[in-house]
Amino acid sequence: MAMGGGYTGADRTRRANQQGWRRELSADDAIMPDLRSLREESQHMARNNALAIGAIKTNVTKVIGTGLSVRPVIDRDHLGLSQEQADAWEKAARREFNLAADSRDLDWERQQDFYGIQSLVFGRMLEDGDIFVNLPRLARRGQIYSLRLQLIEAARVCNPNMAADNENMAGGVERDAAGIPVRVWVLNRHPGAWRLSPAGKADWKWQGIDLFDRSGNPACLHIFEVSRPGQSRGVPYLAPVIELIKQLGRYTDAEVMAAVVSGMFTVFITNDQGSPAFGPAPTAMNPDGSPGGQNDPTGLELGYGSVVGLLPGEQISTATPGRPNTAYDTFVLAILRSIGMALELPLEVLTKHFTSSYSAARAALEEASDYFMRRRALLVSGFCQPVYEAIISEAVARGRLAAPGFFTDAATRKAWLGSQWIGDAQASLDPLKEINAAKARIDLGISTREEERNRLLGQDWEPILPQIMKEREIFAPPTPPKNGEDER
Questions:
Q1: Is residue 35 part of a domain?
Q2: Alpha helices, DSSP H only, in 281-397?
């Protein structure tokens, strides 16, 4: 008889470990069979469930906000540039990037600029689990740069002819012999576009899009959170709590309905025969239960202060559902805490309700801020920085930016493409305390004005420096005359 190890969690003789089916699965075996259902459930809740909508929108607002902006920061030591030369190049690079980023022509569909696309990309990644961004080149009149961002929803990336997954293809992501993703297969339209597709599946076609070009640069971005090696597709953000949110929604609906019934003072008239002579039960199409529908004169209802006569043998029974339920709020808050733990959103942030002490509210905001910064870093590395590099590469290729060694040496290219991404600042409960703390860090030399402005306001410090100097000069007190000088 084989002896077990020291973990009771693996002891199948224990009752708690005998319930349910468990098996160790690979990343794709655990994800792919359920992915379509998870996306459908996630999308449905993101359209109809207040809690799901709030969780996703809170993420988008706190992570993206008005948009993440770039600040070029090149490695001037590696490039052998002076501080003045580096500053001049960084300003020129930002100017060139903004020529493309501030225009809706960057969007393949000409609907949003770069900053609006950020919110769309991140929102779809949360709701669907992942999103693909193709990076084609398309010249447009009046535009200097030809890079375009073509967003591809998760459902459109699938195996050709809806074939089953295999070792080289899973969820429309093709891998080479070494197991490296090299190509994605995209359906010519969304599989759910049935209303505008009378031909149905007859005209479905798939196109293979390489993830990298011949030089090894990204050609199509696959943006998702990788949680396991070998994972081909992303999982919706709400996946761990779908069942819990649905059950909470059902419970809430039941409580609301019970409260409505209680508020309407429903009565039942009983008699010895038990004949249902007062019409059918209410339905969605006939909410008052009248034989002929709403306001039917044959139906019965209580009037204001009315006196109702009863036949012999009849008596009235009232329904007392005991609503509103006094334990409702406590129970719901307990469930919301569990949901918040899975989504990494403290209860106060998830519900937008701060009733605790200052310290507790501050702790909740800081805990959420750590999560939002991690999500921001994911979007920067997976989407923002590759787009920035593609635009700057085109600027150098067109001769609009001088960058010696850019296309000949990988280390030099990396030095030219260094950057920082700045987003909206996180919420502050006491701005004065935050400002005093920032001043202390600057005075101690452990931080800079630029870092503190980014932290407090989410904005770059350098662009406002000329205005600061101008205002100080205007409002500076007059210089007193030196000894022996005429005060006139």
A1: yes
A2: 328-343, 347-351, 358-379, 385-397
